[in-house]
TrEMBL record:
Organism: Arthrobotrys musiformis
Coiled coil location: none
Protein name, per record: Protein kinase domain-containing protein
Highest rank taxon of the organism: Eukaryota
Gene3D superfamilies: Transferase(Phosphotransferase) domain 1
Length: 450
C-alpha cells in the first residue's frame, strides 16, 4: 500500500453517540479582547500540504498496510462515544496513528502524541505532539491539539467570521474553544495548534505578537491529500522543521486576580501583590502542575522597588482534580507556616489568574537534589526536615531525592502536593524509607569508588 492509497483507504466511521455527556467544561485561559487580534485565513495551506506529501504518494512501505489494518480492527468499536474522552480515543486511532506512521516512515521522525502530563507545558491541552529529543531548544512539545465533541462544538460555516463577530461573547462555544487553544499556544510559546471535534479539523498558526491564522475546515469525509490526516501530518512536520521552531512572544507575565494567601520574603517588606507581575522565564518540570522559574517584579508605576527570584507552581484548575490538588498543597503550606524558610520553601503568595490558573509563588531554594550535588551531610539535613514535618503530624507523601532542594549545604523538602496529616505509623514508615534512600546512595558511592 502506498501513501496515496493510505490516505484514500482510511474512512473515519460516524460516531455512534450513546449519551450526550460532557465530561469537561470549556475554559478560557486568555482574554481574546486583550491579547488576540481578529482571526485571518491561512491562505495556501492546501498547496503547502501538496508540496510536502505529493512527491511521496507512490511510496510503498509495509507500515502503511499495517496501519490501515489496525484502524479497521479498532475503529468500529471505538466509534461508540458518549463523552469527550471517548471522542479523543477515537481520534487517536483515526487521525494520530496514521499520522505517526507517515511521519516515521517518510521523514524518519522520532515523535509521538501524548497527554500533557509527560510534557513541559503550562495548562492542560488534550493532546501534545512532541519529538523525543531536541538538542537546540531543549523542548519536546511542538504542537497542541484541543478536542471537543461534535455535539458540544457545532462549528459554523465560516468560523473566522463567526469568531470575529462574537469575540465579545464569553458564552459562545467557538469563541471559548479558540480562546482556550490560543491561550495554551501563547503560554507555551508555540506557533501551531489544532482544534478538532472529530468531524472537522482546524489548524491554527500564530503570526506576529497577537495574530492567529485559521485554516479551512478539513472534513472527516475528505480523502487523499485534502484529508484531515494529510493536514495533521503537514502541521506536525511543519512544527518540527520550520526554521523558527518557537513562537512569537507569548503571555509570560501574569497578575493574580484573586489572592488566597498573602505573604512576603522579608517580615519588614509588605508586598502589594495586586500590583506585582509574575514573570515566567523557564520551565523546570511538569506533572499535575507546571513548575516554572522566574521573577516577582513590580508593575510599571507601582511605588515598590523590590524584585525577587521565585519558583511558580502553576495548576490548571479547569479540571476539578487539579483544583483539589492545588488547594491541598496551599493548605499544607499554610499549616506548616512555622517550617517555611527553614525546612520547606516560603510560600510568598497563592492565588488565581485568568479564572483558570492557580499559582503558588515559592522561595527559590536552589537546585533539585541529585546524586551529583549532595554529600553525606545532606542526609542529616534531610532527616531534620522530615522530623520537623512529622512533628507537625504530617507526612510528605512522595519522599524521593528529587523532592529535596539544596543550596549552600541546606536541604529543604519541596513539592508538598501529597503532604497530608498522618498517624505515627505512617510517619515511621516514611523515616524508614528515608534511611533506605540513604543506604542506596551510600552503596552507589562505594560502587563508584571501585
Amino acid at each position: 500500500m502506498n501513501l496515496s492509497q493510505l490516505l484514500d483507504e482510511i474512512i473515519p466511521p460516524r460516531i455512534r453517540k450513546t449519551v450526550e455527556n460532557s465530561t469537561t467544561r470549556t475554559t478560557v485561559p486568555a482574554y481574546t479582547r486583550e491579547h488576540l487580534a481578529d482571526l485571518t485565513p491561512w491562505v495556501g495551506i492546501d498547496e503547502d500540504i501538496k508540496n510536502l506529501l505529493g512527491p511521496h504518494l507512490n511510496h510503498f512501505p509495509r507500515r502503511f498496510l499495517r496501519a490501515v489494518e489496525a484502524i479497521e480492527d479498532r475503529a468500529d468499536i471505538k466509534s461508540v462515544c458518549g463523552n469527550k474522552s471517548d471522542v479523543v480515543v477515537l481520534g487517536r486511532t483515526i487521525y494520530e496513528d496514521p499520522t505517526l506512521a507517515i511521519l516515521k516512515e517518510l521523514f524518519s521522525m522520532e515523535c509521538d502524541f501524548a497527554d500533557h502530563c509527560g510534557i513541559d507545558n503550562i495548562g492542560d491541552p488534550d493532546r501534545v505532539f512532541y519529538i523525543f529529543t531536541d538538542r537546540i531548544t531543549k523542548s519536546r512539545a511542538k504542537f497542541l491539539m484541543e478536542w471537543k465533541t461534535p455535539w458540544a462544538l457545532r462549528t459554523p460555516t465560516d468560523v473566522i467570521t463567526h469568531f470575529n463577530r462574537e469575540r465579545g461573547n464569553p458564552d459562545d462555544k467557538v469563541v471559548q474553544a479558540i480562546s482556550q487553544l490560543y491561550g495554551y499556544m501563547t503560554f507555551n510559546n508555540l506557533i501551531h495548534g489544532g482544534l478538532c471535534n472529530y468531524e472537522v479539523l482546524y489548524l491554527l498558526r500564530r503570526i506576529g505578537d497577537t495574530g492567529l491564522q485559521v485554516s479551512r475546515p478539513f472534513l472527516y469525509s475528505e480523502r487523499g491529500i485534502r484529508s484531515p490526516i494529510a493536514a495533521l501530518t503537514y502541521i506536525c512536520h511543519c512544527s518540527v522543521t520550520e526554521a523558527v521552531e518557537r513562537g512569537p512572544p507569548g503571555i509570560h507575565t501574569f497578575v493574580l486576580d484573586d489572592l488566597e494567601v498573602e505573604g512576603t520574603w522579608d517580615k519588614d517588606i509588605k508586598v502589594p501583590w495586586t500590583d506585582i507581575n509574575l514573570r515566567i522565564s523557564n520551565a523546570v518540570s511538569k506533572n499535575i502542575a507546571s513548575v516554572m522559574s522566574g521573577e516577582v517584579v513590580p508593575r510599571e508605576g507601582t511605588r515598590f522597588r523590590y524584585r525577587k527570584r521565585a519558583f511558580f507552581k502553576i495548576y490548571d484548575i479547569t479540571r476539578p482534580s487539579n483544583l483539589k490538588a492545588a488547594d491541598a498543597e496551599i493548605k499544607a503550606y499554610t499549616d506548616l507556616k512555622a517550617l517555611q524558610g527553614e525546612y520547606v520553601p516560603t510560600l510568598y503568595v497563592a492565588g488565581t489568574t485568568l479564572g483558570s490558573l492557580k499559582f503558588l509563588v515559592l522561595e527559590d531554594c536552589g537546585q533539585t537534589a541529585s546524586d551529583e550535588n549532595i554529600d553525606r551531610d545532606f542526609w542529616s539535613q534531610a532527616r531534620k526536615a522530615i522530623e520537623a514535618l512529622h512533628a507537625c503530624g504530617r507526612t510528605h507523601g512522595d519522599l524521593k531525592l528529587e523532592n529535596f532542594a539544596v543550596s549552600n549545604g541546606v536541604a529543604r523538602l519541596i513539592d508538598l502536593g501529597a503532604c497530608r496529616p498522618a498517624p505515627e505509623i505512617d510517619r515511621f514508615v516514611e523515616r524508614f524509607n528515608l534511611s533506605l534512600l540513604k543506604r542506596d546512595w551510600e552503596e552507589a558511592q562505594v560502587e563508584g569508588a571501585d
